[in-house]
């Protein structure tokens, strides 16, 4: 190898590179003259480096040579081993070819071995086979004694013997059904024992919530038996993949059946809580739902705290029981919702489903946390069913409210005919129980609706207000009929005035109650806007109160009619006390009217004042008297002034506390008296002009009647005054309340008056 030309060239090239490197290093060391003194030192240092490198090189080469030597030795040994194996294989092949005939001659021995194995297995199982009847009896006794775990152990032994024999027979001759049937028949009691044991297990599971409190060991034994059977099922199914054989009655799937039994038990428990019917107890549904709530809560607390300790964790017993209870409740609520429920029953059901179920009284109870998350629970009733129930409730509630309001009004009407006065409130104002009854009914329904949802509460409030509108219209009609009935016979009803006052006061109570109701049950502006869009009831109530006040005033003026007719007559002029009687009568009535609440009493007082003055002026315009001398005119005018002051004093007294000017109406009588009192006929035009300017609704027939009453105005003067006033209409004061407008002068034209 070293003589190879290529290697020689490589060596020469290496030598040249080494010399060049050495020259370069020496040149680097001897760059200055003073470094020549260190040449010997440099030589020794380089010699040491060279010796070190050569030593490392020799060691490396020696190590590689040792490795090569070892490898060559191992290769040599491997070659020898291969040759030995080759020789051994040749010997085996030779022996195998020579023994083929010998193996075929041992077939009888092979059959004998198989038969021996079977017989050995049979001998081994003979004891168990002969003891089957005894084991069956013992197992039956253990089951009857409640020793379920021991009974199951013996049952497993029986099934193991049966399954082993049948499997062996299947392997030997799977088509031999006679032997398989014989074995199955011999072990026929085994399946009956299994079924009997299963019944006992299911009975324990059906009472598991009670058993876990009294004897948790029994429940644990049941679960252990089920878990054993599950393991046997899995083992047999795995063996089926290899042998294709499955023993009779397998797989038992007792775990699956266990959950089915628990599910049926939960369903039965929920359905069995209904102890009453609507016929036997009106509160049957409330009682039924309360029992369900209590039972479910108690059961789940027991399951969470006790039952989970009796079952393996992978059974997730609490989660499964929670699901079963929820599904059973959902089914029960669906059944209840499909029944023909009454309004209060619908409320009870929806309140329970939407609120109670997820509240701290049930699923939200702290003892169930954190395993139960109420936010993760599905609704017990679908939104469509809830909506249908709400529609039914609103429809029924509408009919009920209409009926309740009608009945309340009928009851109130009966009170109007009583011989005793109505009750008074704490301030002494007459009232009936109608507003309290109506709004107590509204309040109760709103409280019930609020328990279900805010949306239903708003709907019920709107319904109440809508029905209130219709009710007030009927209330107004009944008040009018009440007045008409009284006018046909003013002696009846005996307390007509007092009950009409109560009707008027009820209007104010209704107003206040409506405001209170809205304030209490409308929590935001949006809801307020919805209700404001409904027709306002204030107008209807004001109308009822106004008509009631008019009815009372009509009653007053019916009693005053005789005395009003005496005004401006000869009898009046010579000394009638008609105005005294009028004042006494009005004051007497207003003693009763003091029972009217302030806003209506104030308006009624003002209206009574106006009407008395109008009736007084009407008497002036009736042309009942014509004064024949200045003395009569003076006497009549002064009497009119005195009576005006008398009326003014009366109404000032009646209006005390209202803070209003009550002199304006009576001043009209004084103004008319001034026209009559005037002694200089030449100033009559000026006086009449002043009267017309103050009271612009006065007409020419009024002026004609007034001049006729004076009795001293000539025809030309009357004509001149009337024509002059017709040419210069006056501008009415915007605050002026017309008085003459409704006064009709008897049908006698002005021309006839002038004559």
Automatic annotation (TrEMBL):
Family indicated by similarity: Belongs to the SEC6 family.
Species name: Cavia porcellus
GO-annotated biological processes: exocyst localization; exocytosis; protein transport
Subcellular location, principal: other
GO molecular-function term, one example from the UniProt record: SNARE binding
Subcellular location: Cell projection, Growth cone; Cytoplasm, Perinuclear region; Golgi apparatus; Midbody
Keyword Transport: yes
Keywords, alphabetical: Acetylation, Cell projection, Cytoplasm, Exocytosis, Golgi apparatus, Protein transport, Transport
Stated role: Component of the exocyst complex involved in the docking of exocytic vesicles with fusion sites on the plasma membrane.
Name of the protein this chain belongs to: Exocyst complex component 3
A Pfam family matched in the record: Sec6
Complex and partners: The exocyst complex is composed of EXOC1, EXOC2, EXOC3, EXOC4, EXOC5, EXOC6, EXOC7 and EXOC8. Interacts with EXOC3L1. Interacts with BIRC6/bruce. Interacts with MYRIP. Interacts with SLC6A9.
One Gene Ontology cellular component: membrane
Stored PANTHER family: EXOCYST COMPLEX COMPONENT 3, EXOCYST COMPLEX COMPONENT SEC6-RELATED
Gene behind the chain: EXOC3
């Amino acid at each position: 190898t070293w003589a190879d030309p290529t290697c020689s060239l490589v060596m020469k090239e290496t030598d040249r590179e080494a010399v060049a490197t050495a020259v370069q290093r020496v040149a680097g060391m001897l760059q200055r003259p003073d470094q020549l003194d260190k040449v010997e030192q440099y030589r020794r240092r380089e010699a040491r480096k060279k010796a070190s490198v050569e030593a490392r090189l020799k060691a490396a080469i020696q190590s590689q040579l040792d490795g090569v030597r070892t490898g060559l030795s191992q290769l040599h040994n491997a070659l020898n081993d291969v040759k030995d194996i080759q020789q051994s294989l040749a010997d085996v092949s030779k022996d195998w070819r020579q023994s083929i005939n010998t193996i075929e001659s041992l077939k009888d021995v092979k059959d004998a071995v198989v038969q021996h194995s079977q017989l050995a297995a049979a001998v081994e199982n003979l004891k168990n086979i002969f003891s089957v009847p005894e084991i069956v009896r013992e197992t039956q006794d253990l089951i009857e004694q409640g020793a379920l775990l021991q009974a199951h152990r013996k049952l497993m032994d029986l099934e193991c013997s049966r399954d082993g024999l049948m499997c062996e027979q299947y392997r030997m001759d799977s088509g031999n059904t006679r032997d398989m049937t014989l074995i199955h028949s011999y072990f026929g009691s085994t399946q009956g024992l299994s079924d009997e044991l299963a019944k006992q297990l299911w009975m324990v599971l059906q009472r598991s919530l009670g058993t876990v409190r009294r004897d948790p060991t029994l429940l644990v034994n049941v679960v252990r038996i089920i878990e054993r059977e599950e393991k046997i099922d899995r083992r047999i199914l795995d063996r089926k993949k290899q042998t294709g054989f499955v023993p009779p009655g397998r797989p038992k799937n007792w775990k699956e059946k266990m959950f089915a039994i628990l599910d049926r038990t939960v369903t039965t428990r929920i359905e069995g809580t209904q102890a009453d019917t609507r016929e036997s107890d009106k509160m049957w549904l409330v009682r039924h739902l309360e029992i369900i709530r209590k039972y479910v809560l108690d059961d789940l607390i027991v399951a969470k705290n006790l039952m989970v300790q009796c079952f393996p964790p992978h059974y997730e017993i609490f989660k499964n029981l929670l699901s079963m209870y929820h599904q059973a409740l959902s089914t029960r609520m669906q059944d209840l919702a499909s029944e023909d429920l009454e309004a209060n029953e619908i409320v009870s059901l929806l309140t329970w489903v939407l609120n109670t179920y997820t509240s701290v009284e049930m699923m939200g109870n702290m003892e169930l946390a954190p395993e139960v998350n109420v936010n993760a629970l599905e609704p017990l009733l679908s939104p469509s069913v809830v909506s249908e129930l709400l529609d039914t409730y609103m429809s029924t509630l509408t009919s009920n409210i209409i009926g309740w309001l009608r009945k309340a009004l009928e009851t109130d009407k009966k009170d109007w005919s009583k011989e005793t006065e109505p009750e008074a409130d704490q301030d002494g104002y007459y009232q009936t129980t109608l507003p309290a009854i109506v709004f107590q009914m509204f309040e109760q329904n709103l409280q019930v609706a609020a328990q279900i949802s805010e949306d239903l509460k708003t709907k019920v409030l709107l319904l109440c207000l809508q029905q209130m509108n219709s009710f007030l219209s009927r209330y107004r009609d009944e008040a009018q009929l009440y007045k008409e009935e009284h006018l046909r016979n003013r002696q009846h009803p005996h307390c007509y005035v007092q009950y009409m006052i109560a009707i008027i006061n009820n209007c104010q109570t209704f107003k206040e109650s409506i405001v209170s109701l809205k304030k209490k049950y409308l929590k935001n502006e949006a809801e307020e806007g919805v209700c404001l869009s409904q027709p306002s009831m204030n107008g209807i109530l004001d109308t009822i109160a106004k008509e009631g006040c008019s009815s009372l005033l009509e009653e007053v003026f019916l009693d005053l009619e005789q005395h009003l007719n005496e005004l401006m007559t000869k009898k009046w002029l010579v000394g009638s006390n008609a105005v005294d009687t009028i004042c006494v009568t009005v004051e007497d009535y207003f003693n009763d009217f003091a029972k009217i609440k302030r806003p209506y009493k104030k308006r009624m007082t003002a209206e009574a004042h106006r009407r008395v003055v109008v009736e007084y002026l009407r008497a002036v315009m009736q042309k009942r008297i014509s004064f024949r001398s200045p003395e009569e005119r003076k006497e009549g005018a002064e009497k009119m002034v005195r009576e005006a002051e008398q009326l003014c004093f009366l109404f000032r007294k009646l209006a005390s506390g209202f803070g209003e000017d009550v002199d304006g109406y009576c001043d009209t009588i004084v103004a008319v008296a001034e026209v009559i009192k005037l002694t200089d006929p030449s100033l009559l035009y000026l006086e009449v002009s002043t009267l017309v300017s103050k009271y612009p609704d006065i007409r020419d027939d009024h002026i004609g009647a007034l001049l006729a009453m004076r009795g001293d105005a000539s025809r030309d003067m009357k004509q001149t005054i009337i024509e002059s006033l017709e040419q210069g209409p006056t501008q009415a004061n915007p605050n002026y309340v017309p008085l003459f407008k409704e006064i009709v002068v008897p049908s006698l034209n002005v021309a006839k008056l002038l004559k």
